[in-house]
Amino acid sequence: MSAAAGTLLLHDDLRDAVAYCREVTRTRAANFYWGLRLTPEPQRSAMYAIYAWMREADDIVDGASAGSDAARSIHAFRVQTRAALAGEAGDSKSLWRALAAVARAYPLDASDFEAMIDGQIADLQTRRLQDGADLRRYCEQVASSVGRVCVRIWGYQSPDALVLASERGVAFQLVNVIRDVAEDARMGRVYIPQDHFDAAGIDVDALLRWQDPPRCHRLMDGMITAARERFEASAQLDSLIEPSCRPTLRGLTGMYRALLERMAARPERVVQCRVSVPKLQKLLVILGARLSGVR
After folding, report:
1. What is the model's pTM?
2. Is residue 45 one of the residues assigned to a domain?
3. Which one is predicted more confidently, 7 or 169?
């Protein structure tokens, strides 16, 4: 990709579209927003567009009950996405104009977006995963795909970066699964596999009530260990993406790892409240990532 291609996102006729995507990111994903602020332009604006696209897909699924209306909405979203990835805005909506510009500027792979949409469609129904293979498949659909999109925008120095981005995506999604276990269960979605519950000797209701603390700890410790392993497996990713975007990756990873360790310290909190990283700690993570420069 040439520098000239990347600057497409900074043209005057796209400023309102990019501003819309930036505001969606700022108001709906504070962690991502401050991490993405470390990204140089024009990649920063491209990442705002990607996040806004993901937020739209999530909202369609989370805001609708399973049924024909939700199915029609996500199908229309897929059609619009395919048009935008072909470089066609389709209509004047800011999201699609921004995504079309990103597709013209960067070597995106449409299969990553298709995988993300497939994962959203599966969430329209009550969902229970049976084993680790199911969990891995889910993480690859909704998060490894995102990791590859990010790396294609940031730029990379070896094809190995795409493989490692997939692993980092799995790590991020495992953190999400742990944090959101209670919220997801209320929507009929249980992403911790059934065989994990069986091995711990509890069911999801017992976990949500933290009914048998030693068994609950055993289950959550296994999930936390799996996330840590995926972070370690993808440790070389940072050195393979373009230096100017490494602080962004380090910032985002640092916040997810901080969240993971916060839950590891008191895993019972995941069924009591939505665990988050304190603002001061977030600022320190971002500052550390910024100071890391291009090392």
Report:
1. 0.92
2. yes
3. 169
